[in-house]
Amino acid sequence: MRSERSASAEQIYAALVALAAEPVADPQARPEGAQEADRLRLLGGLLAKTELEITVATRLTGEEELEDILETMLGWADQLGPDPAAAVNVLTNRLQRTALQVSESEAEEAPPGREASFAAAMTAMYTLSAQLHADRGDVEGTRRALCGAEEALIDVMQGVHDLRVAIGDAAEEDETPES
Prior knowledge:
Elements: H1 9-18, H2 39-57, H3 62-80, H4 84-103, H5 112-135, H6 139-166
């Protein structure tokens, strides 16, 4: 997927400056300013700033919250245009980022709720990918994506169970089956 008018690193940096969110750069490391090699990192910063602005602007009261979210979605759809394949690619990419962000934890091992949430995002991503492959007639790609979805779904269930065990709502399963 290619954008017809991709923003340059310099343009993205300028947008961050306009939003008072420019990254602190080491002038000795980058005396010439933002470079194309910085483009994805700058886009990530711009995305984070945009998501924070949406979060702050969204009212958290019943109907108003839904209206704000729908208004945001209309803006998203206006920008993306009428290309359903592009929308699926954007959603798949978002789900991958969400899964990685959810799995980030200070602990050596992520808590079960985070593990289950990571797997839930991956389940959605794989399932969406499977449908995309199926729509293209790619049976093997569909199978691979469905395998990923099934494995991730098992991880969701295990994480939910582990969280129930952690709060005392379920018994921990034995490692060895009884004969």
